[in-house]
C-alpha cells in the first residue's frame, strides 16, 4: 500500500497526486496546504502564470476531488490557526463537506513553520496506520 503526505506546496502536491492517482495511493495526509494553484503567489516571486496547468482541474484540490468523487483515497489535512493558509484550508473543508466527500480535517495552534510540521507529522502517520492491514 502507498501513502502520500506533504506540507505547504508539497501538501498541495500530495493532495493533488493522491487524488489524481487514487488507484495507486490508499491515503493522503497534508499539512498547511495550498488548496488552489493561485495561492502559490503567497510563496513565490515568479508570475503565477508560469505554474498554470493544461488541465484546470489540476489547479484545484476541490475540482480534482469532485471530478474523481467515486474513486478517492482516504483524505486528511490540517492547518495551524495562525497559518496564512488557514482560511483556504477551512474553505476546502467546508466545500468537501458540502460535496459529501469523506475526509478528516483538523486545526491546531501554530503557524506556517517547521515547529508545527514536526509536531503534526505524527498525525499523518497515525492516520495512515488506520488503513494498514
Characterization of this structure:
This protein has one domain (2-129): Rossmann fold (3-Layer(aba) Sandwich). The protein is built from four helices and four strands. It has helices at 9-20, 61-67, 86-98, 114-129; strands at residues 2-7, 25-31, 74-80, 104-108. Strands 1-2-3-4 form a four-stranded parallel beta sheet, sandwiched between helices. The longest helix is centred in the C-terminal third of the chain and has 16 residues, at 114-129. The protein is globular. The mean pLDDT is 91.
Keywords:
alpha/beta, 19% strand, 133 residues, Rossmann fold, 4 helices, 36% helix
CATH topology value: Rossmann fold
Rg of Cα set: 14 Å
The figure for the number of domains is: 1
Percent range of helical residues? 25-40%
Q: What is the highest CATH level, the class? A: Alpha Beta
Q: What is the tally of helical segments?
A: 4
Spans of 5+ residues with little confidence (pLDDT < 50)? none
Beta-strand content estimate: 15-25%
CATH superfamily: Alpha/Beta hydrolase fold, catalytic domain
Pattern of helices and strands = EHEHEHEH
Largest sheet, strands/sense/barrel = 4 strands, parallel
CATH architecture: 3-Layer(aba) Sandwich
**Tally of DSSP β-strands:** 4
End-to-end distance: 9 Å
- Average pLDDT, rounded to a whole number, is 91
Cross-sheet strand order for the largest sheet: 1-2-3-4
* Shape annotation: globular
SSE class? alpha/beta
Amino acid at each position: 500500500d502507498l501513502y502520500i503526505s506533504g506540507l505547504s506546496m508539497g501538501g498541495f502536491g500530495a493532495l493533488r497526486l493522491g487524488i489524481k492517482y487514487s488507484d495507486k495511493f490508499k491515503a493522503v495526509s497534508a499539512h498547511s496546504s495550498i488548496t488552489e494553484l493561485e495561492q502559490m503567489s503567497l510563496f513565490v516571486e515568479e508570475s503565477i502564470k508560469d505554474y498554470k496547468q493544461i488541465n484546470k482541474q489540476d489547479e484545484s484540490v476541490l475540482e480534482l476531488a469532485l471530478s474523481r468523487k467515486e474513486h478517492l483515497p482516504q483524505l486528511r489535512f490540517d492547518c495551524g490557526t495562525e497559518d496564512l493558509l488557514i482560511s483556504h484550508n477551512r474553505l476546502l473543508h467546508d466545500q468537501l463537506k458540502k460535496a459529501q466527500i469523506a475526509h478528516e480535517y483538523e486545526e491546531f495552534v501554530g503557524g506556517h513553520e517547521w515547529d508545527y510540521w514536526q509536531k503534526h507529522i505524527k498525525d499523518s502517520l497515525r492516520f495512515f496506520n488506520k488503513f494498514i492491514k
